[in-house]
C-alpha cells in the first residue's frame, strides 16, 4: 500500500538521495568472491578516431577468468562527444547479444549529431593494455586545482594485500593487482577512483542511515553497497526499495582555492546490480565499483560545473519532467480504510467545516469490488453514488483521484466476468511462463496476472480499461499507480496448477483487522499517559513531553533479451545484495517472459516506468486537452517525463505505518506544506489523522496551507522551469552555495528554488530548532512572517530559532522577487481567480530579480503562456515586464518592498505619483507596502521611489 507523500515530482526523473549497505547476512552466493588477480582485463587492438569521437575494439588480454559466467572475448568501445557538456562512453559486446534499454522505452535526447571534441568541456583518455580510460575536464592543467584530477578514472594502481572486507567480499589470501575491466555474459565490473572521502550524492532510491551525502567508507565509514533492484518494501534502512536510479553527482571542493566544481555520471542501464562506494585500508583514494548481472557499460558524463547544471544536463538527456496541472499543488487527503462513499464524503465535509483547504480527495483499494482494478464495490461504493460524489467535488472546484494497482485479477470461472482480464487475454497483453502458459502471481485480489508492457496491444488495452472506468463511474482527475515494482506476494507462478477459487488474501495479512491491530506509536509518545487517541492534550492544553515452491516445469531457462544461451536466468551466479535475497521473492520470477523473447531478469527495473508511460498516454487519450496527473511508486530513468513520485510506505511521518499523535501531525502538516506534493495518507486500522482531528493541527494546517497557496505562482514557475530546462525545484543548500563545505551534508534544511529556506522541526518535544543560514553573513535572510532580518553568523555555524508547536521557520533570501496570490482562499481555482501580490526583497546594493511563468494551468504545452520579469535596480526603481501571448486577467493589488533603508518622499507608478493613503513605510523592517494598486500585468509597469 501507499503512504502519505510529499516527494518532489523532479525526483521521478532524478533521485539524488543517499544511503549505504553492508553485505547481507545469509545472502546466497555472497561468499563467492572474485579473485581479480586472475582476470586479465582487455587490450585495445584497433582504433578509429574522428573529430567527434572514437570507435575501438577490445580483446581479452589473457586466459578468461569466467568469474560469474563466461568472459566475452570481443568488445566495442564507442566514445561520442554529443554536446559540449556531455560525453558518452559505451562499452558493449561486439556481437550485441547483451540486453540494452530499448529506445522505445527510454528515448534519449542525444540528438543526431555530435560536436568536435575540441569544443567539449570533457576529454576521453585511454591506455591500450590493459585497457583503461579516464575522463578529464578539457581545461585540466589550469590554475584551478579542482580540474587537475580526473573525474572518472579506471586506472586503479596496485592495492595493498589487506582485504577490502566487509564491503567487497574478496578472497582474503590474494594480493590484489588493480581492478581490471570484467565483461561476462552474466557479470560486468568496472571500477573508478574517487577523491578520498568524495562528496557523492545520488544512486537512489534509498533511505540512508548515513544521510544525504553517500558513505564512501572513509573516516570510519562503512562504505555503501547500493543495490539496483526495484522492490516492494516498507521503508527499510540502507536497502533497495521501490526505485532504481544509477546516477550520481560528485561535488569537489578545493581547499587551496576555496572553489568547487560538480560533475555527474549516469550508468544507462536497467540491470540488476550493486554499486559500491568504498575506501580500501591504507589507500589514498576512494572507489566506485559497478557490478552488474546483465547489460552493457553505457556511461554518460555531465560536466556541470555546478550542481544545478549537472541536474539540468541529466534532464536534457533523459527527458525533462512532465508539466503538472495547477490543482496538483493543492492539499490532498486519503487513507486506506475509508470503508464506503459516505465516510469518504464525510472527510470532505469536515475539512470544509474546519476551514482547512482540501483540493483533492483520494480513495485506496477500499473503492474496489473484490479488490479488483477498474471496479467500484456495489455495496460500499456504488457507481451511481460515486458519480454523484465526484460531480459534487467538481462543482466545488475540487478533484478526485483513485488508486490503480499493477496486477490484474485472474478470472476464475466462466460465471466470473471481469472484462479487464478477458479483454487482456484477447489482446495477449499478459506475461507468460517459459512454457508459454499464463504467469499467475498473487496480490490483493488473490491470483493475478501482470501486464506485459512490451506486448504490442498493452497500451491499447490499458487505455480501454481506464476509459471504461472513467465513463462508467469514476470520472478521475488523475491516477495513483501502486505496487508497480512489480509486487507479487508469492514466489513464481504460484497460480499454475493451483485451486483458482482460493482468490482472497487471508485477513491476517492485512493490518487494521481485529486480529491484526495497529499498535505502533511515534517516537516520544507516552500512550500510558496520553491514552490511545494520539491526542497529547491534557485538559485542552498541549503538553510536550509464504512462498509457494516453483513448479518444476516452470524452472525452464529462457533466452536472454539478446537471445543469449547457456545463462542462468533463475539463479544468476553473482548474487546482488537484494534485500529479499533471491531476485524472485515478492516480485515476478526472473524467467517470466515478455513479448519478443524478453525476460524479467533483464527488464524488471523498467516495469514501473512502462506502466507510468502507458498511463500517461491513456490519460491524454481520455482527456486530450488536460495534463495527466499521475504519481508512481516505482520509478527509474526518465519516469519524470510521465509522472511524479511519492515515498511509498513509510514510518517517519504523520502516517503511513503505525499510529500518529497530535504533535507529529502538527509538525508534519507544516513541513509538508513546503514540499511539492502535499498529501496526508493513512494506514488501514491506525488512528485517524485527518488534520481537523486536533485543534492545534487544524490551526497549524490552515496557517501552513495559507502560505503554500500564497506561494503557488512561485511553485508553478519552478515546475515550469523544471519542465523546460530541468532546473530542480527543491534544492539542497550547497546547490546554491557550492563553496561552503559546512553545507555538503546538510539534509535537515532545504531550499525551495533559490529564494525560500525551510528549517523544519524533525525531533519531538522541542520548541527551538537549529539551522544554518547559507552565505556566511553575506546574504540577508528575512523571516517570512515578520519580515525581520535574521542575525546570522559569518562562520557557517548554526543559529537557534524559535519553533513553538504550530510554527515552521521560513526565510526569504535577499535579491529575490516573488509573485504571490494576494488572498488565498479555499481551493486553488478560487485562489487563482483572485489578485496578485508582489514581494520584493532587495539586496544590500538595492537590486532584486525574479520571474513568474503563467498559463491556464491545465492544457498540454505548447499552450499560450506569459513570463513576467521583475527587476529592481540600484536606482530605486522596479520594472515589471511581460512576454508572451497568455492574457493575465488578475491584477496586481499589493506590493511589498523590503530593504528600503529610509522612508521615501514619494512613489511613482508609471510616472504618476501614488497617493500617500495608498502606501506606508514601516521602519523596523525597512518595508514599503502599497495596496489597492490595480496594475494590469499585461503591460510594462514601472515603479520608483525617492
Instruction: Tell me the distance between the termini.
Output: 60 Å
Instruction: Name the CATH homologous superfamily of the domain at 17-318.
Output: glycosyl hydrolase (family 31)
Instruction: Tell me the number of strands.
Output: 47
Number of helices: 13
Mean pLDDT: 89
CATH architecture of the domain at 17-318: Sandwich
What is the molecular shape?
Answer: globular
CATH fold description of the domain at 17-318: Immunoglobulin-like
Query: Which spans of ≥5 residues are poorly predicted at pLDDT below 50?
Result: 1-35, 141-147, 158-176, 537-548, 555-561
Q: From the alpha-carbon coordinates, what is the Rg to the nearest angstrom?
A: 29 Å
- Sheet-strand content, in percent, reads 15-25%
Helix proportion:
10-25%
Strand order of the largest sheet: 1-2-3-4-16-13-12-10
Description:
A hairpin with a 2-residue loop joins β21 and β22 (446-449). Among the domains are: 17-318, Sandwich (Immunoglobulin-like), CATH 2.60.40; 835-945, Sandwich (Immunoglobulin-like). The protein has 946 residues and is α+β, with helices and mostly antiparallel strands. 54% of the residues are buried. The termini are far apart. The strands form ten sheets. It has an eight-stranded antiparallel sheet, with helices on one face. Strands 27-26-23-19-18-17-28 form a seven-stranded parallel sheet.
Amino acid at each position: 500500500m501507499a503512504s502519505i507523500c510529499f516527494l518532489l515530482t523532479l525526483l521521478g526523473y532524478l533521485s539524488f538521495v543517499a544511503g549505504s549497505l553492508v553485505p547481507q547476512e545469509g545472502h546466497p552466493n555472497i561468499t563467492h568472491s572474485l579473485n581479480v588477480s586472475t582476470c586479465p582485463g582487455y587490450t585495445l587492438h584497433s582504433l578509429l578516431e574522428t573529430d567527434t569521437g572514437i570507435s575501438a575494439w577490445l580483446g581479452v588480454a589473457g586466459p578468461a577468468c569466467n568469474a560469474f559466467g563466461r568472459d566475452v572475448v570481443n568488445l566495442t568501445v564507442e566514445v561520442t562527444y554529443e554536446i559540449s557538456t556531455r560525453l558518452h562512453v559505451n562499452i558493449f559486446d561486439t556481437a550485441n547479444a547483451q540486453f540494452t534499454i530499448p529506445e522505445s522505452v527510454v528515448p534519449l535526447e542525444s540528438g543526431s549529431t555530435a560536436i568536435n571534441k575540441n569544443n567539449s568541456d570533457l576529454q576521453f583518455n585511454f591506455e591500450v593494455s590493459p585497457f583503461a580510460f579516464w575522463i578529464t575536464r578539457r581545461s585540466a592543467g589550469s590554475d584551478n586545482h579542482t580540474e587537475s584530477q580526473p573525474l572518472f578514472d579506471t586506472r586503479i594502481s596496485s592495492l595493498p594485500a589487506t582485504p577490502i572486507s566487509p564491503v567487497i567480499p574478496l578472497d582474503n589470501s590474494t594480493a590484489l593487482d588493480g581492478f581490471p575491466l570484467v565483461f561476462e555474459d552474466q557479470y560486468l565490473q568496472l571500477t573508478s577512483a574517487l577523491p578520498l572521502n568524495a562528496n557523492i550524492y545520488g544512486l537512489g532510491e534509498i533511505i540512508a542511515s548515513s544521510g544525504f551525502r553517500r558513505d564512501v567508507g572513509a573516516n570510519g565509514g562503512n562504505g555503501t553497497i547500493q543495490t539496483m533492484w526495484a522492490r516492494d518494501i516498507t521503508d527499510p534502512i540502507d536497502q533497495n526499495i521501490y526505485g532504481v536510479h544509477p546516477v550520481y553527482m560528485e561535488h569537489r571542493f578545493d581547499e587551496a582555492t576555496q572553489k568547487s566544481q560538480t560533475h555527474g555520471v549516469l550508468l544507462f542501464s536497467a540491470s540488476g546490480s550493486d554499486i559500491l562506494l568504498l575506501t580500501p585500508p591504507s589507500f589514498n583514494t576512494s572507489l566506485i565499483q559497478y557490478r552488474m548481472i546483465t547489460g552493457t557499460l553505457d556511461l554518460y558524463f555531465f560536466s556541470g560545473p555546478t550542481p544545478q547544471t549537472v541536474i539540468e544536463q541529466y534532464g536534457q538527456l533523459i527527458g525533462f519532467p512532465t508539466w503538472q496541472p495547477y490543482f496538483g499543488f493543492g492539499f490532498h487527503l486519503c487513507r486506506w480504510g475509508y470503508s464506503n462513499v459516505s465516510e469518504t464524503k464525510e472527510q470532505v465535509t469536515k475539512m470544509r467545516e474546519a476551514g482547512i483547504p482540501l483540493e483533492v480527495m483520494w480513495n485506496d483499494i477500499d473503492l474496489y469490488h473484490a479488490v479488483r482494478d477498474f471496479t467500484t464495490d456495489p455495496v460500499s461504493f456504488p457507481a451511481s453514488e460515486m458519480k454523484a460524489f465526484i460531480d459534487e467535488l467538481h462543482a466545488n472546484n475540487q478533484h478526485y483521484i483513485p488508486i490503480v494497482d499493477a496486477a490484474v485479477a485472474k478470472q476464475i470461472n466462466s460465471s466470473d466476468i471481469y472484462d479487464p482480464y478477458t479483454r487482456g487475454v484477447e489482446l495477449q497483453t499478459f506475461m507468460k511462463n517459459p512454457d508459454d502458459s499464463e504467469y499467475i502471481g498473487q496480490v490483493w485480489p488473490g491470483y493475478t496476472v501482470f501486464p506485459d508492457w512490451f506486448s504490442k496491444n498493452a497500451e491499447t488495452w490499458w487505455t480501454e480499461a481506464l476509459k471504461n472506468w472513467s465513463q462508467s463511474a469514476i470520472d478521475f482527475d488523475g491516477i495513483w499507480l501502486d505496487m508497480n515494482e512489480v509486487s507479487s506476494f508469492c514466489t513464481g507462478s504460484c497460480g499454475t496448477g493451483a485451486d483458482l477459487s482460493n482468490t482472497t488474501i487471508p485477513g491476517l495479512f492485512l493490518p487494521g483487522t481485529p486480529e491484526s491491530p495497529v499498535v505502533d506509536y511515534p517516537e516520544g509518545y507516552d500512550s500510558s499517559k496520553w491514552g490511545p487517541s494520539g491526542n497529547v492534550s491534557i485538559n485542552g492544553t498541549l503538553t510536550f513531553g509464504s512462498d509457494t515452491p516453483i513448479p518444476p516445469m516452470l524452472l525452464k531457462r529462457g533466452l536472454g533479451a539478446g537471445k543469449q544461451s547457456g545463462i542462468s536466468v533463475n539463479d544468476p551466479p553473482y548474487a546482488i545484495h537484494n534485500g529479499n535475497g533471491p531476485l524472485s521473492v515478492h516480485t515476478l520470477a526472473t524467467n517470466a517472459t515478455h513479448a519478443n523473447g524478453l525476460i524479467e531478469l533483464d527488464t524488471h527495473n523498467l516495469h514501473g516506468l512502462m506502466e507510468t508511460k502507458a498511463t500517461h498516454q491513456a490519460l491524454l487519450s481520455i482527456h486530450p486537452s488536460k495534463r495527466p496527473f499521475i504519481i508512481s511508486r516505482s520509478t527509474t530513468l526518465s519516469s519524470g517525463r510521465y509522472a511524479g513520485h511519492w515515498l511509498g510506505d513509510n514510518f517517519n511521518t504523520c502516517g503511513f505505518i503505525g499510529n500518529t499523535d497530535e504533535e507529529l501531525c502538527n509538525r508534519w502538516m507544516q513541513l509538508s506544506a513546503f514540499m511539492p506534493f502535499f498529501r496526508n495518507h493513512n494506514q488501514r486500522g491506525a488512528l485517524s489523522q485527518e488534520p481537523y482531528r486536533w485543534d492545534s493541527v487544524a490551526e497549524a494546517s490552515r496557517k501552513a496551507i495559507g502560505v503554500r497557496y500564497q506561494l503557488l505562482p512561485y511553485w508553478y514557475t519552478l515546475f515550469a522551469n523544471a519542465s523546460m530546462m530541468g532546473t530542480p525545484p527543491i534544492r539542497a543548500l550547497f546547490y546554491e552555495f557550492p563553496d561552503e563545505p559546512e553545507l555538503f551534508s546538510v539534509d535537515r534544511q532545504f531550499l525551495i528554488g533559490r529564494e525560500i529556506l525551510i528549517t523544519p522541526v524533525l525531533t519531538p518535544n522541542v520548541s527551538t530548532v537549529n539551522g544554518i543560514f547559507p552565505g556566511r553573513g553575506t546574504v540577508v535572510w528575512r523571516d517570512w512572517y515578520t519580515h525581520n532580518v535574521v542575525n546570522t553568523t559569518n562562520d557557517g555555524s548554526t543559529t537557534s530559532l524559535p519553533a513553538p508547536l504550530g510554527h515552521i521557520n521560513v526565510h526569504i533570501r535577499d535579491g529575490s522577487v516573488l509573485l504571490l496570490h494576494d488572498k488565498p482562499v479555499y481551493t486553488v481555482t478560487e485562489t487563482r481567480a483572485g489578485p496578485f501580490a508582489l514581494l520584493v526583497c532587495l539586496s544590500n546594493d538595492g537590486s532584486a530579480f525574479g520571474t513568474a511563468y503563467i498559463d491556464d494551468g491545465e492544457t498540454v504545452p505548447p499552450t499560450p503562456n506569459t513570463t513576467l520579469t521583475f527587476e529592481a535596480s540600484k536606482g530605486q526603481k522596479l520594472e515589471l515586464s511581460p512576454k508572451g501571448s497568455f492574457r493575465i486577467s488578475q491584477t496586481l493589488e499589493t506590493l511589498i518592498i523590503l530593504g528600503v533603508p529610509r522612508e521615501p518622499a514619494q512613489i511613482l507608478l508609471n510616472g504618476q505619483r501614488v497617493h500617500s493613503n495608498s502606501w506606508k513605510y514601516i521602519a523596523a523592517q525597512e518595508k514599503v507596502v502599497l495596496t489597492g494598486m490595480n496594475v494590469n500585468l499585461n503591460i510594462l509597469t514601472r515603479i520608483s521611489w525617492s
